[in-house]
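Sharing a chain and its predicted structure for anyone who wants a worked example. Both blocks are below, sequence first, tokens second.
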Amino acid sequence: MYKLYATITKDFRILMRDKVGLTLMFAMPILLALIITAVQNSTFELVNHNKIKLLLCNKDTGDASRQLVVAIEKSGMFQEIKISGNESTGNIIARMHAKDALIAVVIPKGFSEKVAATANDIASNALKNLDMQKDTAKTSANSVYPLTLYYHPVLQESFRESVTGALRGALQLVQSKQIVRTLYQSLNEKQIPDSLENQIVNNQMPINQIPVSRDGSTTIPNATQHNIPAWTIFAMFFIVVSLGSSVVKENISGSFIRLKTLPTNYFIALLSKQLTYLFLTLVQTAVIFSLGVWLFPLIGLPALNLPHDLTGLVIVSLICGWCAVSYAICIGVFSHTQEQANGFGSISIIMLAAIGGLMVPSFAMPSSFKPILNISPLHWCLEAYYGLFLEGGKLKDVMINIIPLAGMIVCMQLITLYGLKRKNLI
């Protein structure tokens, strides 16, 4: 026991001297969690609460175009900047390049007439199918002039699609109103009352949004709930920079050989490193989680809500930390230089994080990439944390993720022992 204590003390002192490694293990993931959470949260706020600046150029003078402008205003998604209908395309584009707005909509001349003509066509066809057609005159087949949407190239496709969807909804509302008016007037030979028109057109069924959780909670997960667990895992696995280098350095300096001449064995040194760095991963977890719970609300970010099963959280953190330590030692044993351990270790962690769902959600990956998810230990770590944080599960609910992690730990430990045996270090 004394040998193990002395070895842990030695490893802890070596760790404290590694300023660069400690910086990477703490400062980098904290900054990543802070910056990415802030960016994602601001994006959610932009979509859900803040308004997008929109240049609105109405070249039409009819009733349908005025209704469309009102519908766009009522959507609540845009901050309209109305410009003259005589504004040229070049001036609109110039204002967008000047960042007056990232989106511009042009309602073309003759828009109202085309909407009315299309409504008459649809109403006429509907009455004909009901054998109630009163006018046998040929109806117009002209289509509605399309709206023109200008967008700045910095807008991503997903964001642009949400804007397009809001505009389609406003346009559909205008067209539906015109069709209802035309049908009512054709059947009753009088204008439809405003109250009845609003009842028909604006009578939308509400959508009740409920997150699926195991504990029955209806709390909607926020950007912090997604990012803090992800970058905590990233911090755990980035101990490969410090631990891998330490293993290589001791190998190069002959420490392993000297251990063979002493009344001890390398298994004690191996256990010491694992316990020391496993403790370090738990410290990383406690620090990053604490920031999410106490610091984030002070700087305007959503607070981290810890799961109800704290025992499960501790066990999952232990398994994830042990997996990270096993991977780092395995890299260090098979590396010949510190540069190899640092280079391959850091790049491999970034790649495993990318395919494991930390950088891009796993559900958004191409189908060809999804089978590769299973080879990334970071994927199973993330799924275990998400089972606790997002789904409100308990330890028994995430065992399906812990079992593959335990299998990976055993495999990496056996590979490490094989590497040590091959180098005659044990």
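Comments welcome. Confidence is low (pLDDT under 50) at residues 136-141.
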